Amino acid sequence: MIIRFIKPDVTANSAKLTVHKTGKLGLSKGAMELLNTAKNRFVRFGFGEDDQLLMEVSHDAKENSFPIGKAGDYDYINARTMLDELGVDYMAKQTIIYDIKKTAEEGFFRLHQRVIKK
After folding, report:
1. Do the domain assignments include residue 95?
2. pLDDT number for residue 10
C-alpha cells in the first residue's frame, strides 16, 4: 500500500489577527511569517465575489492600504475604520479573531472571523 502523507503547516494553523480593544489588529507570530511582514509592510482589505473578506499584502503602499506598525517583537494594523465599516464591536468583552488562510492568488489571503465569548 502506498500512502501519501499530509505535511502539517504549523505556520498556517497559527496565522491569525486578534482584534484589540483599541481597534488595532495584532498579528500572531504565525501571521507575521505567513505574510512575510519583514518585507511586506502594507495591507488592503476587501471582499471577493463570494463576499468573503480578503486581505492583500504588499511591500509598497497602494490606494486604500493600511500600514503595518511595529510594537516590540510584534506587528499590528490600525484598522479601526475597517472594523467600524464591518460593524465589529472591538470594545466588546468577547475576543474576535480572524484566521488567515492562503488563496491561490499570490499575496492574497482569506480571513475567517471567530468569536470567543467570555
Report:
1. yes
2. 55
